Amino acid sequence: WSSDVCSSDLVGMAPLPEPLVGELAKMARHGEDQLRERAEKLSEEARAAGDRERITAAIGVWRRMIAPEQPVHPEDLPMSWSNLGVLLLTRYEIDGSARDLDEGIDAYRKAAALEPPGTPGWARYRSNLSAALYRRHVVTGSAQDRDEALALGRAASELSGLSDSERAQSLSNF
Fold first, then answer.
1. What is the C-alpha to C-alpha distance for residues 153 and 110, in angstroms, rounded to an integer?
2. Looking at residues 12-30, what average pLDDT do you find?
3. Exposure pattern of 61-72 as b/e (b: 16+ CB <10 Å)?
4. Which backbone phi and psi does 15 adopt, to 5 degrees?
5. Residues 105 and 90 sit within 8 Å (Cβ to Cβ)
6. Which of 3, 69, 68 is nearest to 31 (CA)?
7. Which of 43, 96, 117, 162 could staple 166 via S-S, CB 3.0–4.6 A?
């Protein structure tokens, strides 16, 4: 969805007044916010219950939200990818599927790549990726995963804009 749509982009239709186009964009954004809030609630409940089926359902919701055909607002993509990573790692903890661990790491990588440098989100997503890579290192013995986890953990914890609680969270993953 792009809020940069103008009335001339609506092929075959009479031009819409620009204020109406702006209001339609706001309505779409409000709908996205409600969907994201529902997805977050479903995710929290599924994780709290430790129910693999509910976690799988929540994974499906987040995958639909980041699908290229109709992604969430670009500002929400890093968080959406991160939420998908959290759920995949949660499902990995339940049944030990290496595929879930690998896909969770991929989701965290996408979240980290999409977040602007220097923001608390930038540090948080790298900290999450660091923890997931270290977890995979423990399972596989991969020195590459260990080294990348350590480098990411250091970078995330050294970000000067972090609050004390964010720095502590980052260090706890390290």
1. 17
2. 53
3. bbeebbeeeeeb
4. -60, 140
5. no
6. 3
7. 162
Measured CA to CA, the distance from residue 110 to residue 107 in angstroms comes to 5
pLDDT higher than 70, residue 136: yes
Asked whether 46 and 58 are in contact (CB, 8 A), the reply is: yes
Q: Nearest 5°: phi and psi at 59?
A: -60, -45
CA dist., res. 58 & res. 146, Å (int): 29
Show the DSSP H helices in the chain as ranges: 18-49, 52-66, 77-95, 98-114, 120-140, 143-157, 164-173
The one-character DSSP state at 10 is S
Return the closest-CA partner of residue 84 out of 105, 114, 99, 98: 105
Q: Provide the residue type at 166 as one letter.
A: E
- Where residue 11 falls (left for φ over 0; alpha for ψ -120 to 50; beta otherwise) is beta
pTM: 0.75
- What 8-state DSSP symbol labels residue 73? P
Q: Which two tokens stand for residue 116?
A: 């602007």
What distance, in Å, lies between the first and last C-alpha atoms of the chain? 36
